[in-house]
Amino acid sequence: GAGVSQSPSNKVTEKGKDVELRCDPISGHTALYWYRQRLGQGLEFLIYFQGNSAPDKSGLPSDRFSAERTGESVSTLTIQRTQQEDSAVYLCASSYAGTAHYNEQFFGPGTRLTVL
Amino acid sequence: AQSVAQPEDQVNVAEGNPLTVKCTYSVSGNPYLFWYVQYPNRGLQFLLKYITGDNLVKGSYGFEAEFNKSQTSFHLKKPSALVSDSALYFCAVRDSGTYKYIFGTGTRLKVLA
Fold first, then answer.
1. Cβ contact (<8 Å) for B101 and A59?
2. Closest CA–CA distance from residue B102 to any residue of chain A (Å)
3. Cα-Cα-Cα-Cα dihedral sign, residues A24, A28, A33, A38
4. How many angstroms separate the first and last alpha carbons of chain A?
5. What chain A residue is nearest to B101 in terms of C-alpha separation?
6. pLDDT 10s digits, A81-90
């Protein structure tokens, strides 16, 4: 079946512009995560969705970052007034969140964001 | 606060030799521990996890990991390395009381023919 997809795969933007990144999770996966991976570094947790709600937004670096999810499916991560330090690969992952909620995550290929 | 440490940026091992990739963690509650692998030009893939029970867990591609509570470690192992195992390996932990996953900085494994 189809895996997690993300679009665009690459995005180059100018400093100060807004960008929107999209994630399509695996159908039926109620949990969805966004991460940021800077060059040579590990994954940095940004936000977690359970259904359309975000019980944990603690990783969003600033109020320029926001995310939403609709229909327990597609999620968008929006970065306003982009800065050069926002340049990174943004990864989305989904998982089936059963009652125990410790299932493995399935990752998308990522969106490489470059802010000039 | 939760944290994960992968003390080695890179591990080199000869093909056919055993390999170990180290991971230590810190959580306040019970840990849920994971290993993921990132092959070149491919997304992260799940390898194995420890939730509860037997301290030795087995995963994909012949990998296994041992949970050691006293040493707060979850090292990844394989008895005989293959060149195709060369990749970037990430350890991750989730405190049972939160939804947040913390990933290590990754260890690049290079298996030499």
1. no
2. 7
3. negative
4. 37
5. A45
6. 999 999 999 9
